[in-house]
Amino acid sequence: MEAAVSSDGESAGELVLRAAALVPWTSYALAALALAAALLYRFLELHFLGDLLRGLRGGRVALTFHPESQVYHRVASKCRSLYGRYLATPWLASPHLQTLFLSISGRPPSFTYRRQLYNVRDGGTIALDWLLASDLEAEDVDSCDESISRDDSTPLLVVIPGLTSDSSAAYVKHLVFSMASKGWNVVVSNHRGLGGISITSDCFYNAGWTEDMREVVNFLHQKYPEAPLFTVGTSIGANIVVKYLGEEGESTPVAGAASICSPWDLLVTNRFISRKLVQRLYDRALAIGLKGYAKLHQPVLARLANWEAITSSSSIREFDRHATCVVAKYETVDTFYRKCSSANYIGNVSVPLLCISALDDPLCTREAIPWDECRANKNIVLATTPNGGHLAFFEGLTAGRLWWVRPVSEFLCALHDSSYMHRQKAQEHGLHSSLESSIDKTPYVNFMEDGMVAAVTNDGPDNDGSLHNQIVGEIELNDGMVAIQQNEHTGEIQNESDSGVGEKNNSEGNVTSVQGHEGNHKQQEEPDANNIRDAIVPVRRSINQITRSQGKSVWLLAYIAVVTSWPLLGALGYFLFRKRFSNSMLAKKPKKL
Fold this sequence. Notes:
Largest sheet: 9 strands, mixed
Strand order of the largest sheet: 2-11-10-9-8-6-7-5-4
Radius of gyration: 33 Å
Strand content: 5-15%
InterPro entries: AB_hydrolase_1, AB_hydrolase_4_sf, AB_hydrolase_fold
Family: Belongs to the AB hydrolase superfamily. AB hydrolase 4 family.
Helix content: 40-55%
Structural class: alpha/beta
Organism: Urochloa decumbens
Number of helices: 21
Region (Disordered): 493-533
Domain AB hydrolase-1: 155-396
């Protein structure tokens, strides 16, 4: 077929090109910009136009709960934020922009922590960073010497940060400051090897490692038995909190908890972050953060795993294959993800739990949220928002607040004022005692050449049986500077010094120590007979319990055995003694004459 030709002998294609040449180049530039803007709007998942169409009211908070849940009807119903809407900051109307801004700035409040080092049973060291309610009430924090007494009933909140995060993270400081402003005492339990603390054992933290949280919670509960204990986990910390609550069930001393942006199912989440281009960028960024964490502790990690393979990891999965699975002794990466996913433990959670997730979370996908499991548990209330990013939820024109902090504080305060706080049930086998791994056993810390803080054993001048001179190591995280003060006081957590004194002590290589809980030295001086008696008592209780519970069953089994076996025994006896029985009968018959 011949092409259409005009009267001037030009083809249709030539006519189109001539017409296109008549269009000004500025029109093409505007069209290209519009196309690029549309692609960028879709790539960044912006929702500013959607917010405008909704009249800048934001999206509703969706709640998932059991219809008969008293936690929802009596506690969550008093939280105004859960029945409102969430409107993201207009210039951060994207989950990626929110998450990026949180990691870069986050605009956290300014305050100073008090540091306490805790030595766990396997020799590892955990940094506990405190912010007391009295610290915010005092005009001069440096001169405040108030500490927590054993019979203090002020509620205590334990915060578990996310992956490669510590107490200096912006979202952690937002939460800590908000709860301390409401009169609560708050402590951040940093992961091993984070917060400026070196690894002092062959154990590293991971997404399913709940032993550190278990020891810290038990220690705090034993040291402050009158203080209601609450906990909040964020991201990986949320997975640890929910998994811990499911493992402990009714036996945990935690009265209430909150889970923020939990990955829930680690296998589904890992597949999600390797699916699209933007998610793969997050995967690469998190892998770089994990390799930076490994670099801080290279001497230990290089001895336990293949260091070259760790440094060549380009994704979280590769890092977990070469580092996490090797150190934690998991067969495969998928085995690690399946066993450590908190979604498997939701059914056994016996503590009032508020879970908050954003449906546009770029890291923890909505596909992993266990909707049905949360709906089946009367202790759980799940709140989801259309937007928010990962741990961000910025609101206001200046992005000075994180929305999720408000419903968490409302929920925990309402739970504390109600009668629905979880009460720990007495156990026959006893709790995991942290008295055997108290702070007093290794009260000293050294400053290494790389600036890390390392715990040292008790082999010091105070091992003559007298009380150790305890020194509280305190940290100041303003402007990213860490300051440690040497302060020779015994007992409770002390106040913080200025950064100048801390830098001086750091440069001089002073040895600092941390406080321990009361009465530990008395326990160490008890005779061995008491230790043997304490070890026998739980065994005796267990035997008595088994005897009481199995007594009736033993008698029932004996009765059944007698009833069912007597016909067999009778038949067997008949065949065995048949001849003898017949002879005796014949002998008794009278003889005929």
